[in-house]
Amino acid sequence: MDLSNSLVHKRSQSRICRSSFPPALILQNDHRRTNLSVSKPLHVSSFEVIGKGKRAAIQCKAYEADKSQPIEAAAAAAAEVKTETAKRVKIGIYFAIWWALNVVFNIYNKKVLNAYPYPWLTSTLSLACGSLMMLISWATRIAEAPKTDFEFWKTLFPVAVAHTIGHVAATVSMSKVAVSFTHIIKSGEPAFSVLVSSCLLGETFPPAVYLSLVPIIGGCALAAVTELNFNMIGFMGAMISNLAFVFRNIFSKKGMKGKSVSGMNYYACLSMLSLVILTPFAIAVEGPQMWAAGWEKALSEIGPQFIWWVAAQSIFYHLYNQVSYMSLDQISPLTFSIGNTMKRISVIVSSIIIFHTPVQPINALGAAIAILGTFLYSQAKA
């Protein structure tokens, strides 16, 4: 009988600890009366004895009955939501800056090439300006210099070769055709990526990826056939740029595994090595005599603002690439691919408006189909 009474007594105590408090709980201590009103039932989560002897106090922690976690966990979850929101805002700002800088670069780049048709020198100046900006940033400690070794530069070399070819080829393309046409053809880069990965690396892709290439290839072909100012050198330049950037991405993924260089410094090192590779070829293809004669002609026709055009295209080229690499540090490749697709749309539309590029409806349809295919490709690769 005593055993059963003790069991009942313990069970009732346990039920009191686990059960919820009533909506109105009246606590009476000596002569004072305190009313504790709780809108929602509470569950006890833990007891803690503070102090010793007669002055010992009991600290009781509780959480709402309809919650699945204690108050501390809920606060941590709320903080995590705020952190995620802040991260998304940061990525949105990166994307907005990336697109804006890219649009400005393409506008000034086309202005320079129209007045000064020397794409090899223009490409060299872009890389030289970015390299100089980063060297100054490291020297003044605005940015922390990366810790590199011979192995780093060795793995970066094939990436730099591909980057150099892609950069020059795209600049040659834009010197011959409209900016919008170059970017329409460059939206076909996923087709080159699948082709190279399948043939050279033996990779296989889901059927949806192969199906997404149909609108990409078809849209690019339709845009090329209906382009009013079609130029074979401009077309081939954009195609070679696509192929080179695919190899750049492949070499970059293979060579940079386990490296702790930030996106900003990685692109800075890439620019410097590309500059070293490109400079002798630019001198051999065009040469100082052609550059000097063209420079005098451009200054006489455009005036001093031509110098600002050259400086702007060089500065904004580095900035937009730097921001894109910084964005890649924060987001997944899928999100970056979608952002790159939207960037091309902004460049195509803005260049058509600013340069008054004549566009036929069938040409615009081809561009839209190609860009839609690029978007479907990024979704299929997810």
Task: Summarize the structure in words.
The structure is a single chain. This protein is mainly alpha-helical and 382 residues long. 73% of the residues lie in helices and 8% in strands. The chain contains 13 helices and 4 strands. Strands 1-2 form a two-stranded antiparallel sheet. A two-stranded antiparallel sheet has the order 3-4. Strand 3 (42-50) and strand 4 form a beta hairpin. Helix 3 packs across helix 11, helix 7 (207-225) runs antiparallel to helix 13 (361-380) and helix 12 (333-355) packs antiparallel against helix 13. The longest helix has 45 residues, at 71-115. The radius of gyration is 32 Å and the shape is globular. The model is unreliable at 1-34 (pLDDT under 50).
Largest sheet: 2 strands, antiparallel
User: What coarse outline follows from CA principal-axis ratios?
Assistant: globular
The count of β-strands is 4
Mean pLDDT: 81
In percent, how much strand structure appears in the residues? Answer: 5-15%
**Fraction of residues in H or I helices:** over 70%
- Classify the secondary structure makeup into a structural class: mainly alpha
Give the count of helical stretches. 13
